[in-house]
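@channel sequence for tomorrow's demo:
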Amino acid sequence: MKKTLFALAAVGALSGVANAQSSVTVYGVIDEGLTGGNTAVSNGGAANTTSGVIKTTGLGFTSGNQSTSRIGFKGSEDLGGGMSAFFTYEIKMDNDSTLGISTNRQAFVGVKKNGWGSIAAGTQNTPIYDAVLSSDPGAVNNIAGNLITTSSKGAQGALPAGSGVATNQPYATRLSNTASIKTDNFAGFTARALILANSANSTETTTNTSTTAGVGGSGVIATNGTASTTNNQSGYGIGVDYTWQKLLVTANYQAFKASSTLNTIGVAPTLFSPGGVTTAATNSQDSGQYYAATYDFGILKAFGQYINRKVANDLNTAYYQKYTAQQIGVRSFVTPTVEAWASAAMGRYNAYTVGTGTAAYQPGKANLNAFQLGTNYWLSKRTNLYAIYGQTATSNYTATSANSNPVAANQNNYSVGVRHTF
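structure tokens (generated this afternoon):
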């Protein structure tokens, strides 16, 4: 009798495992529009040798203007007892490329406990990027005019190198080789943390040398063996959100470090996650902070944002580049189907530059200002028409030495198109 009861219990347990609830969802965004704009760059000062203003213009159809086109798969499995397993795999798509698939955006797997939170590992958003996604008036679109999420689409040209307004200049968006922890809501507070760990080192164990006769009796020494190499990325990020009725406040900090045998003082450090992809940085200490608040007044939602990023040389932190910006904005449904937003920002960028002699370190400086206007016409919950216009300007940008020309530049960028989510 006891054996029969044990057998029935075992069968019941196996049946529970076999019947665990699981689901997989395919989702994505397809965004295409007509995009154009222009840039104008002028050199000034007594040392100016360039006459006139250099202008570039562009117009054409582009992908991912309001939202980056993508396809993703996400799923979860009920493990019982309030536990579940989950995964996400998301890929960037390019509508105007015959290849279609571009780069990996997110790829992680984890487990969740109801009432506590989740842990996950893989390629994931940084804490700052997660916070920007919920507190940006332009909803992190890819048109110029936003100094918190810097980007531009089309062939109109980019602002000059060193002006600070490069794609995703203000923060690292997502990184591979990470583990994360996210908590559930406790009295209005939620928290998240990210750890980056990726090390690859080799040590030279043997070196063989030989000498061969050269012209005039000189010898040439040949060295065989593998030299020591170092390529390590590490760091962490933390973020805390507080929600109370219609108010959201978020505070975030992240710091990542990359050390490699390529380190030299004269080479600028590489940003983590340049261009929004998962490439690791080299030769850098990359730290940033982001604070924002939103309040929904009903008729409109107001936004306030501040970001600061500093990327220093790993060998000598006195050599660095720094980006700071403040932005305010509003977003509102003018009618049940027409949505509009506007934002204005100002900032400052210190470029990483190394001179010679008495001017051993002359950082370039640029004052930044920008604004953006946009509107959506919602055809349905999943499909909308959009029109976005943005403008970014840099002034008083000084290059590597006191004798270099100050540079002023202006960029405007616009797009009209259609976006469908599924």
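heads up for whoever presents: The chain is about 5% helix and 55% strand.
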